[in-house]
Design a protein that fits this description.
Blueprint lengths: L10 E6 L2 E5 L7 H5 L1 E8 L3 E8 L2 E8 L1 E7 L5 E7 L2 E5 L4 E5 L6 E8 L11 E3 L12 H8 L3 H9 L6 E3 L18 E3 L7 E3 L3 E6 L7 H4 L2 E7 L4 E7 L5 E15 L5 E8 L3 E4 L4 E17 L6 E3 L12 H8 L3 H11 L10 E2 L1 H10 L19 H8 L6 H5 L3 H9 L4 H16 L8 H9 L4 E2 L4 H6 L4 E2 L3 E5 L6 H14 L4 E5 L6 H12 L3 H13 L1 E5 L3 H17 L8 E5 L2 H8 L4 H21 L2 E6 L1 E3 L5 E3 L2 H5 L4 E7 L6 E8 L8 E5 L2
Parallel strand pairs: 17-23, 26-30, 26-33, 27-28, 27-29, 29-30
Antiparallel strand pairs: 1-2, 2-3, 3-10, 4-9, 4-11, 4-12, 5-8, 5-10, 6-7, 6-9, 8-13, 14-15, 15-16, 16-21, 17-21, 17-22, 18-19, 18-20, 18-21, 24-25, 31-32, 33-34, 34-35
Organism: Lactuca saligna (Willowleaf lettuce)
GO biological process, one term: reciprocal meiotic recombination
Protein name: RecA family profile 1 domain-containing protein
Amino acid sequence: MDIDLSPKMPKKSYGGAGGSYHAWCPNELPMLRQGNIGAGKLLLEKGGLALPRYSDSAKVAYVLQGNGVAGIVLPEKEEKVLAIKTGDTIALPFGVITWWFNKDDTELQVLFLGDTKTAHKPGSFTDFFLTGSNGIFTGFSMEFVCRAWDVDESTAKSLVGSQTGNGIIKVDSGVRMPEPNKDHRSGMALNCLEAPLDVDIKGGGRVVVLNTKNLPLVGEVGLGADLVRLDGNAMCSPGFSCDSALQVTYIVRGSGRAQVVGVDGKRVLETTVKAGMLFIVPRFFVVSKISDNEGLEWFSIISTPNPIFTHMAGRTSAWKALSPEVLQASFNVSADVEKTFRSKRMNICYGSGELILAVGVLVRNALVGDGEMGALKSLEEDYHIIDANFLQFCASRGIFSVEDFLVHDVSMLMASADKLSNSDRLKQGINQLVLITETYHQPWMNGLMLLEDREQNKHYISTGSESFDVLLQGGLREGHVTELVGPSSSGKTQVCFQVASNVALKKGNVVFFDSGNSFSPTRIKQMVTHISGSEENKVNGSVEEAMRHIECHAVFDIYTLLDLLHQLKLNLKSQPQKKSTDLIIIDSISSLIAPILGGSNAQGHALMVSLGYLLKDLSHQHNIAVLVTNHMVSGEGGTLKPALGESWRNIPHVQLQLSQHHTTTNIYGVYILRHPYMASGRSVNFMIP
């Protein structure tokens, strides 16, 4: 691979009195274009305002320095105004509108790293400004502007032409800007300098990993990220990403040395890195870093939300799994030399002030999640056959969780166990795991059982829209999982709010799982008010009563959702005579599942299918209507299709596609993609107040 990997500094793209924007150029850092990665840095002086804009790329923002305010408008959501400070990380999905403001004397510096696969220019971000001399409405004729904004020509000219600044302006000291709302930070920002440490090794370093558990929007961005702080003379062990992910690293502070080795053992990079530099490690290349005396700190993104690393040093290295005979022959050394090497690879090695810090492995573990649900070790107490020897047997084959076990060939594991002295006990452990995994799968139903289920007196839950209910022959059916799919701004969240409001107003119980910080009590109140009528006393009482019937849970990853659903299932079983839940809503399910899929990640697919079966079991056994939302992705020829692939496609009983009317903002269309009792293709328009 003959390409320049040397670290680079950014160059100024534009700016003025309020600050400037700097970007790394693909022509100078070719890996940006080759890896479809964009990188930029915003610098704002006191009073500097980065005008509202949206981008052609999903990004992760990291505050390098200073304090300020950020405005964020997610599609179909209200504006979030956040106080930001050094160490804050914010995930910015597609379609998000942002503005940035610095009210302090210290310069505000914000780093942006992201994926440019869908960008206009591979390796570069393109921002579309809402206002300013290059704002998108400067390109429209006054006729279009007047009609779009419903204003006269004089007002339109003032709105479009008064702001002569370009991208960044300086706000007069007398102008008041929005005050941050501390409640808006929840689920939107994570401070890496204050967050719980995923790794903390004395004399070595500290690591904080961003995942859907501590920053839920990471799932929608589709990137992993981490902040690593090495102490003086510490080492990040040599390692590579074995799932084709790119590592994009920005040096925040300090200095050190980095080496990258590529094909045929060729060292393709040996350099000194220092604050402000950016460099990219190609797929499968091995990288290692050693900090100088003052330490080294960097912020990285990885081009998959669920990276898998293999390290070549330390107790988590791949050497540990290789047999002594293979190593001796491969190195062409004596048994004594191999024995010495083996004794070192079984432990973390401490030198004079140096420590091998296996960051990549810990990054992967934290991103996948550390819930006890899938960890084999957590099964020891309940299953005596799963003991230390069995866990060691599994670990030597890369099996650390039930999900890992699901993707291994059981017959091959049995054959491996047969070669060992304790084979009988190991095979008992394998059989025990097979029994455990069977609990994830719903039993088969024959045709008669399906017919009986169809003819049961299951009720329908109204969507709150007469035309929508007519299309579905009554509404959402109890015992069914109904999926709403649609692009951004197609009304998915609004339909969830309307159905929840309608059920709660009729004293039905709703469990609402919110994965994107989208639940809005204010919007629920508006809908309840509209449904219940206009009498003030009646409305106030209805709102209060309805809100008592909606139980909302913020869920940031699939593990939390599974835990909550299992707890709900236990609660329902403990009260079989009392129907405590009428409707389950998950908005959105794709933001929880997408982060764990990661290409051919079979463990993620197993978890997804397990979640689907659990939802179908809850709905069927307890006569609950389940409503989930899913976004859409580009398919063949650029046509949109529901996300999550074919494995998920067959889980929902009903699949409906939403769209927003092209001229009226509160008119939506719904189209039947799949229904067990009706032909696909039927559609209606409906209104959401």
